[in-house]
Amino acid sequence: xxxxIKCNLINGKWQKGAKATDNINPANxxxxxxxxxxxxxxxxxxxxxxxKDAFHGWANASPQVRHDLLDAxxxxxxxxxxxxxxxxxxxxxxxxxxGIGETIRASQVFKFFAGEALRVKGDTIASIRPGVGIDVxxxxxxxxGVITPWNFPIAIPAWKIAPALAFGNCVVMKPAALTPGCAHxxxxxxxxxxxxxxxxxxxxxxxxxxxxxxxxxxxxxAVSFTGSIPTGKHVAAKCFETNKKFQLEMGGKNPMVIxxxxxxxxxxxxxxxxxxxxxxxxxxxxxxxxxxxGIHDQFVSLMKEGMxxxxxxxxxxxxxxxxxxxxxxxxxxxxNYIEIAKQEAAEVFGGERLELDKPGFYQNPALFLGTxxxxxxxxxxxxxxxxxxxxxxxxxEALRVANDxxxxxxxxxxxxxxxxxxxxxxEAEAGMVMVNLPTAGVDYHVPFxxxxxxxxxxxxxxxxxxxFYTTVKTAYTYxx
Length: 480
Known about the structure:
Aldehyde Dehydrogenase, Chain A, domain 2, Aldehyde Dehydrogenase, Chain A, domain 1, 480 residues, 14 helices, alpha/beta, seven-stranded mixed β-sheet, six-stranded mixed β-sheet
């Protein structure tokens, strides 16, 4: 462990934690990306108190001040896209191209919400009583706890931090313990761009200590969480206990329907990139390919050909298509599901653990064939480069299978029929629907979120983010 420990940011000062943790490169476990402080309950207490003290000044600052800060952060992230993209690739395992792409996305998010800081709207409504005026305004919540996952370690923090600050809130953030580096870099950039003391605080460490302290703290008014379903349910229960507003983004078991009339080149490309790029570690990744019987065999053959061309390797190598899984625990989970697929009588194409020149958590993408929707592999989120093929008779059966899940984040269809594309957009039980596109990959200026067990609360991103990060006040005035 080196002596150059990255510290927590509390009330405008960098503070060492009681202990520190090595950030391991999943593509090369001998490579230490950095050493990062782990915070304590006391650290969260100090940060929450500082955020509460800073809230009045920040909430009442000119929206131009908030715009200028977020715009500067967006510009700085963009200027450092190569540096941040490489950091992201090393600590999370995405390819360098994906890491730079995610960094650009974070920059765009900050710049979008810089504009939204100037566009907070209200209403003037006529009262039913003579001489009475009504104003409906939006106000910030107070202190927002932000708890982010490891799979998008710069984009997801950006789309929580930026709207929180844009609308006048202060933030106490806990990034995933596996990927603290990108969050720490955002904190450094916020400081460099002049964020006032206490307005943004970063506490790294475990969910059981830092996360619990955020959930339990009385001065934290709301929590925005992205992560697993079990943890999301725990967040919800804790927020109910302490009367916090909360927003949850959790899992997906996303369907991609391929009809007989689909352009197979488009369909196979959408399925391979959606399911296997970013090592399949995206909540929007399609993991159930629901294929009409007339095109099934040809689709499977082309999928195998396309998967065979994918290169699994070091994410910093320009020839790599897919990087490593995030850590040993996730890799073993993926391999366990591959064994479950075999036990359920599915044919498995690929899926082997790979031993490469550098020690890391590498896995070939896996395709499960001959499956039915009632199998565990089609009911539970695997969160790795694994996908199933389910053969169906027609569109009506495809729709039933697509909607037969406890999740409802994203859904896709590949077809050249305007009729079926239109029907699917209307009938798919999902928050986001794609036609002839991968289910993974959404724009930064539109709402993100799902239905059923995938999401709870107002949508993230775009203009809809204002619904979570503000509260509505109705004020009456009698003019006499």
